[in-house]
UniProtKB/TrEMBL annotation:
<protein>
    <recommendedName>
        <fullName>Odorant receptor</fullName>
    </recommendedName>
</protein>
<feature type="transmembrane region" description="Helical">
    <location>
        <begin position="139"/>
        <end position="159"/>
    </location>
</feature>
<feature type="transmembrane region" description="Helical">
    <location>
        <begin position="39"/>
        <end position="60"/>
    </location>
</feature>
<keyword id="KW-1133">Transmembrane helix</keyword>
<keyword id="KW-0716">Sensory transduction</keyword>
<dbReference type="GO" id="GO:0005549">
    <property type="term" value="F:odorant binding"/>
</dbReference>
<feature type="transmembrane region" description="Helical">
    <location>
        <begin position="193"/>
        <end position="215"/>
    </location>
</feature>
<dbReference type="GO" id="GO:0004984">
    <property type="term" value="F:olfactory receptor activity"/>
</dbReference>
<comment type="similarity">
    <text>Belongs to the insect chemoreceptor superfamily. Heteromeric odorant receptor channel (TC 1.A.69) family.</text>
</comment>
<keyword id="KW-0552">Olfaction</keyword>
<feature type="transmembrane region" description="Helical">
    <location>
        <begin position="80"/>
        <end position="99"/>
    </location>
</feature>
<keyword id="KW-0812">Transmembrane</keyword>
<dbReference type="InterPro" id="IPR004117">
    <property type="entry name" value="7tm6_olfct_rcpt"/>
</dbReference>
<keyword id="KW-0472">Membrane</keyword>
<dbReference type="GO" id="GO:0007165">
    <property type="term" value="P:signal transduction"/>
</dbReference>
<feature type="transmembrane region" description="Helical">
    <location>
        <begin position="358"/>
        <end position="378"/>
    </location>
</feature>
<dbReference type="GO" id="GO:0005886">
    <property type="term" value="C:plasma membrane"/>
</dbReference>
Amino acid sequence: MAKSFNIINRADFTFKEVFFITEYAMLINRSHPFIKRNLFWLFQYLIIFTLSISASLLLINSILFYDIPSSRYTDASKNGTMAIVALTVTIKHAFLLYYQADIKNLINIVNKDYELALNFETVKKEIVMKYAKRGKKVTLFWLVAAAVTSIVFPANALLKMAKTYWHGAFEFIPMFELQYPDCINAVKDTPTFFYLLFVYNFLFGFYATTVYIGFDPLAPIFLLHICGQLDILSYRMLTLFDDAEVQDVNVKLKFINMKLQDLYSLVNNIKSMFTVLFEFNMKTSTFLLPLSLFQVTESLKEKQLNVEFFSIFAATIMHFYMPCYYSDVLLERSDNLRRAIYFCGWEKQTNIRARKTILLMMTRTTAPLVLSTVFYPICLDTFAEMCRQSYAIFNIMNAAWA
């Protein structure tokens, strides 16, 4: 525990220092809420936006005008997977920019709570550190998952080219095979255009990686922080009547209620920001899973493993599982607070004001703290339903195209 306290006692115990991986990712893709918006930033954003939109359009062009008309459904599902990824990345980046002020406010709230934690007693400090560490693990996971998924595409192409060179028949292997418009198809195998397309695809992969690392950990980080604050309130409730005078109890209850109201408002703000996007993520994940799994199973039939789409399949599962899991954790911690309120020992007290306040708190906490999409609560039951729908789509694809 000594190491933990060395960390928490530092003056730089802030969102920026703890979650530096997500911070740097947002700085790279220019979506960080504290970046000054000026003409230079606009120029940078237009370059990134052009890269993202052009990738989406090229993939859609290949699906509509080449793959489906030629009945190449395996290629259509492959390009469809990447088109969904490109569209998702574009929307997430736009989300970070649109909700710049709200994200900045959430980060400031976390920083304020971390600053207050420096003066907490040992038990409360440990709670803050525990949930900060869990949030940091989320950023590390997304760093690994997004980086590996992005790197396997160029790495596989380079290995195949090295193999052809070793056998004395060198040929260009594209990072991602798709049909471009005719004017590009005619020259895409020439050295100059091959290098340009390879760099273009690599840059898009790098950009997509930064968006996933910068965006996807945010909701779990904020939810875990709220869970930590709920645990602190639970601890305060369970120790509310320990050697406390009547006036002290009333003051403590007032503070707890004010903090609880702030946490409910914070969850509602996160709901209003992420509701539509979570619904979009659920729908896209429902299609990404069968599309990527179809690529894997088709490659296995040829006694090969499509590493690129296997990594996408694994990352897609975690993409929707993580917010469901941490929303479930939030639900569990809010229920734990309600039990702490009930078991605080109020029945042994003669303080009428405190008993009435606790009754109101019990009523207030009846409403569970949980995120939701437009139609579903974000929880593990919803994740299971999404997997069931994906499996049904996969079976249909196998019956129709395999």
